[in-house]
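Changelog-adjacent note: as of this version, every example in the card shows the full chain rather than a window. The one below runs 211 residues end to end.
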Amino acid sequence: MENERFSYKGEFYEYNDVPMVPRPLTKPYPKIRWAVNSISTFVMAGKLGMPIFCGVLQLTTGQLPELLATHDQAKADAGFGTPRDAHLRIPMYVSDTMDDALKTPEEGFTRRYTSASEILQRMVASGQANYLDERAERIDSLGNLDWEGVHTSEKAIVGTPDVVIDKIKEIGDALQLTGMVLEFNAGERMEEDKINRSRELFCERVVPAFA
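Full-length structure tokens:
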């Protein structure tokens, strides 16, 4: 990012004098955040002192405290004294009523997890994925996850603004997060006006609670 041009020669790939354009606006470059979802990647990111983001697609909020602690320990052992910098990726839907909040995102959010289970099945069956044992264990839990299981097990945050605020605080405090990456149309089955209203409520009613 700091150089105008880039060259690299490795075992599988080679790049020769590639122009680095467009240049990032942030100088020297934007923060790099590593996506992690296995104990090995939590540890690797910690050893490199990398900020991370993790998700509830394959993991649960119940599993994350131990994994985040493992990351913190690996970072400390590597000599990095900085505090935890972890974001959580999670589906979200904010509505004017709880009735709508529990109906509108059902198809898309449930599809998000069903699709993830199918992808994991193909990866494990091919034998080409890393951490096969960990991934195989997640297939059944994802495949058997219905809508009630999604919205009651912190696999998604849905509700009116007040409910969403409380849930963000609860999860954020429990995991000592520095931020969240929100999916407002997970599963891509929601109507545009519903997505826009959800974002509007989030910006106008939820964000001020954390300003």
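Structural remarks: The two ends are 32 Å apart (CA to CA).
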